[in-house]
Each structure stands twice: as C-alpha cells, then as structure tokens.
Amino acid sequence: SEIPLGTRAKNEIATEEEHTPIKQDISKGELRFFSYGSIPFNYGCFPQTYEDPNESHPDTNRPGDNDPIDVCEISEIPLRTGVIEPVKILGVFGLIDEEETDWKIIAVSLQNPFFSQLNDIRDVERFLPGRLDSIRDWFRNYKVGDGKPPNRFSHDDEPQSKEYATRIVAETNQSWKDLVAGKLEPGKLYIDLAKRNHSSNNGNCRVNSQVS
C-alpha cells in the first residue's frame, strides 16, 4: 500500500531510485497533497507490472504511464503505507490521465468481511453501494484543484469485469518481463533501473518491492 484510505499525502513508489522507496511526491518544491479531498480507498500497486509508454492500448488509444499498475482496495479499514496485502481482483477502470493509459484495478482485501461474496465488479455495488461511484468521481476530479481539466475514462466511464482486469494485469506483467529482459525501450523513470536489473541478470526488478 502506498496511500492509506482517508489520507491526502500523495505517496508513490520512487521507481527512479534504487530499492524503490515509497516517498511523498514534491510539486513546485512543496510536498504534494491531494486538493480534491481525502482518498476514498486504499491505493497501491501490483508488483512485476509495467504500463508501457511506448505502445498505445487498443481500448484506450493512449500509451501507458510508465509505472506499475495501480490498485484501489475498497475496504473501510486503512492499510498502512508499505504493507503487503493479499487481494482479490474484481474489475478495472480505464482511466485516461493527461493522455496516458492509467489502469485502476479494483480489488478487495482478504480481510474484508465481504471477501467471499465479492467475486466480480457487479458484486461491488450490491454489497458496497456507491463505492464505485466515489472511486470514479475522485479520479475524474482529483487534479481539477491544481488547474487541470477533469480526467476521462475508457469504456463509456464504466468499470470492466474481473476477466478483463485479469487480462490487463497479465499484459502489464508481460511488459514488465520484457522490460527486465531488455526487450523494451525504458521510459524516462526506468532507464537506470532497467539497466541495473538487466546487467545483474537476475530478473528481480526492484519495482516489485511494494504491493497493495
């Protein structure tokens, strides 16, 4: 987990640094906080995934954002920054953020009381009404206070199924494997990281050090 539910500090894995620590973003020399409001979910990423900035996804017509794939964990209990939490994939939003594809996996923690009942995206509204609306609204508007336009979504703003989301995770995992193997041209944040891991020839890209 990078950002706990109900907080505003914009923490993120520093993919450009060795050992990829989780750090708070800096904007214009100041620590970055969300201006739209506290984040309404636990936010993290999946290990060993990579959203390739060199290739546009056919369903969004936008390139990847050069980061691990993001995960929105929908429980009501905040997860501590840095914790590794087992989750079940339920679906995905296709966020288009500043003309980049930025998939947002919807997932639920093993500790959630509805874990066994939540098995696909359609179950979220049934057991947690309004949760998907709050996620969509937050991602649409969280940069508006910084003077940027609202974000957009693929698929007519609708979240996609567990099957679709699982396929997206598999695609980004393959991109990560290709990155580590030196088959992809690294994006700007990954240039030094990819070189270090490729030269070590062990395939253990440090981007997988944290997960939500």
What does it look like?
By secondary structure, this protein is an alpha+beta fold. It has a single domain (11-200), classed as Inorganic Pyrophosphatase. Helices cover 22% and strands 21% of the residues. The protein has helices at residues 121-127, 131-141, 162-180, 191-200, and strands at residues 11-13, 22-24, 26-27, 30-31, 42-45, 56-57, 62-63, 70-73, 87-97, 100-109, 152-153. It has a five-stranded mixed sheet, sandwiched between helices. The chain has a two-stranded antiparallel ribbon with strand order 1-2. A two-stranded antiparallel sheet has the order 3-4. The longest helix has 19 residues, at 162-180. The termini are close together. Mean pLDDT is 89; it is low at 198-212. Its cofactor is Mg(2+).
Largest sheet: 5 strands, mixed
**How many H/I helical runs?**
4
CATH architecture: Alpha-Beta Complex
Number of domains: 1
Short précis:
The chain has 212 residues and is an alpha+beta fold.
Itemize the secondary structure elements and their pairings:
Elements: E1 11-13, E2 22-24, E3 26-27, E4 30-31, E5 42-45, E6 56-57, E7 62-63, E8 70-73, E9 87-97, E10 100-109, H1 121-127, H2 131-141, E11 152-153, H3 162-180, H4 191-200
Parallel strand pairs: 8-10
Antiparallel strand pairs: 1-2, 3-4, 5-8, 6-7, 9-10, 9-11
